[in-house]
Amino acid sequence: MEDRKVKASVAGAMGRMGQRIVSAVLDNPCLVLAGALEIPGHGAMGKDVGSVLGRGEVGVKVSADLQEVMEKSDVLIDFTNPEASLTHLRKAVELEKAIVIGTTGFSREQITEIEERAPSTRCVLSPNMSVGVNVVLVLLEVASRVLGEDYDMEVLEVHHKHKVDAPSGTAIKMAEVLASSAGKRLEEVAVFARRGQVGPRKMGEIGIQSLRAGDIVGEHTVLFAGVGERIEIIHRAHSRDNFAMGAVRAALWVVDKPPGLYDMRDVLGLREMRK
Predict the structure, then answer these.
(1) Which of 7, 88, 97, 159 is catalytic?
(2) 159 included as an active-site residue
C-alpha cells in the first residue's frame, strides 16, 4: 500500500465516535475516505458525510449498503455494537477485506466467533484504540508481576452516562492483564460489586468498579495498595480524538499484514516489551 492511499470506510459514521473517526480519516494524508456506513433510516442517509459534519462536501454519501461500502474499501473501521460488528466481520471475511473493530460489550460466545472468523482476514480487535491505554497495559503487567499478591489490586472506570456496557471493555482488559500476570483467570478472582457484610478482602481478588456520570469521555484507574504505600496508574481520555487516531493508525498498519487476528499491542510493537 506504499504507492497509493489506503481506502478506509467507517461504520457507525454518524455516531459520536464515528464522526471523530471520519474526521481523522479525512485529515490523514495516507488515507482516502471510501464510505460512511450507517443503519437504514438514519436521518443523514444519502447526505454527503462531509457536509453533515460541517466540513464541506467530500464526495462520500452516508449509506446503509454494507456490500457496496466494503467493496470500495481496503479497510473498514468499526465502532458500532456487537451484533453489527459481527455482521461486518463476516462480510470482511467474505470479501477478503481488512477490518478494525473497536466495539466493546461482546459476549463470550461473540468473542469466540471473532476468534474463529478473524484469522481468515486481517482484523485488529481492541477494546481501546488509545495509544496511551495500550502503553498502560504494558505498565500494569510489569507492576503486577513485581508487586504480586502483597498488593491489593482494584480497577475503577468512569464514563459518560450514555455508555451502555459496564464494566468498560478497557477495564476488563486491564483486569485480565492483572489476573494473567498472577497466573490466574479473571473469572476466578474478579469482584464486580461489594455491598453489605462482604467480609474482609480476600487475597488475590481483583475489584472492578464502574461509575457513570455526565459527559466524561473515559477514565481508568488501577490501584495497587500494599502495607504503608499505594501506587495508582491512571489514564484519562480528554476527547475521543485519541481513540480515532489510534483506529486510523491500526487501519494503516493492518492492510498489508498477513491474515490474522491482531490487537493494538501488535500495531504499536509492544509485544516484545512484554517479554
Answers:
(1) 159
(2) yes
Of 42, 163, 184, 257, the active-site residue reads 163
Q: Any catalytic annotation for residue 7? A: no
Beta strands in 87-193 (DSSP E): 98-101, 122-125, 152-159, 190-191
* Residue 206 β-bridge partners: 153, 190
Of 8, 28, 265, 238, nearest to 136 by C-alpha is 265
Given a contact cutoff of 8 angstroms between Cβ atoms, the answer to whether 252 and 138 are in contact is no
Supply 117's cell numbers: 472468523
> What pLDDT is attached to residue 31?
97
Question: What's the CA gap between 206 and 274, in Å, rounded?
Answer: 21
- The answer to whether 76 and 70 have CB atoms below 8 angstroms apart is yes
Place 104 in a pLDDT band, splitting at 50, 70 and 90.
confident
Check: CB of residue 82 under 8 Å from CB of residue 90. no
- State the Cα angle at 130 between 67 and 265, rounded to 5°: 85
Distances in whole angstroms, Cα of residue 112 to Cα of each of 4, 5, 161, 204: 35, 33, 29, 27
40-46-51-55 Cα dihedral, nearest 10 degrees: 70
> 128 falls in which pLDDT band (50, 70, 90)?
confident
